[in-house]
Design goal:
The chain is mainly alpha-helical and 117 residues long. 45% of the residues lie in helices and 9% in strands. The protein is built from four helices and four strands; from the N terminus they run H-H-H-H-E-E-E-E. The protein has helices at residues 2-18, 29-42, 46-53, 57-70; strands spanning 81-82, 85-87, 93-96, 100-101. A hairpin with a 5-residue loop joins strand 2 and strand 3 (93-96). Helix 1 (2-18) packs across helix 2 (29-42) and helix 2 (29-42) packs across helix 4 (57-70). The longest helix is centred in the N-terminal third of the chain and has 17 residues, at 2-18. It starts with a helix and ends in a 16-residue tail after the last strand.
Length: 117
């Protein structure tokens, strides 16, 4: 429920920034949040969502797209990581180095192999 309310607030702010007038959308921010979360969490088909929410299929797709473009801006900024290791012929890890910052520009050397420091 907390996630629905959080997304509802994001949608309300988004609509306000767009200048959307009150009561001009097919769904409230709360119901749009539920539609978006059902699509992402349960992989509910947009046609099914449209039927359940009594809106057109085009509107369901538009609301999903709106959530898809709005949500990435809320994710924490990460840069990934680099992992190096030695694998056996069957793909099982034999040795794995510590994860290093994904922005590291120089090659990383695993310590502890072949007498390396």
């Amino acid at each position: 429920m907390e996630l629905v309310r959080y997304l509802e607030r994001l949608l309300r702010t988004h609509r306000r920034n767009l200048g959307t007038r009150t009561n001009t959308r097919s769904l409230t921010c709360y119901n749009q949040a539920i539609l978006i979360l059902r699509h992402f969490r349960d992989r509910t088909d947009p046609t099914r969502l449209a039927t359940d929410h009594h809106i057109s299929r085009a509107t369901a797709y538009r609301y999903i797209d709106e959530g898809t473009t709005m949500l990435p801006g809320q994710a924490p900024q990460t840069h990934g990581g680099n992992i190096q290791g030695i694998m056996s012929p069957n793909g099982s890890p034999l040795f794995v180095c510590a994860v290093t910052n994904g922005l590291q520009s120089r090659p990383y050397r695993c310590s502890g192999l072949s007498g390396e420091p």
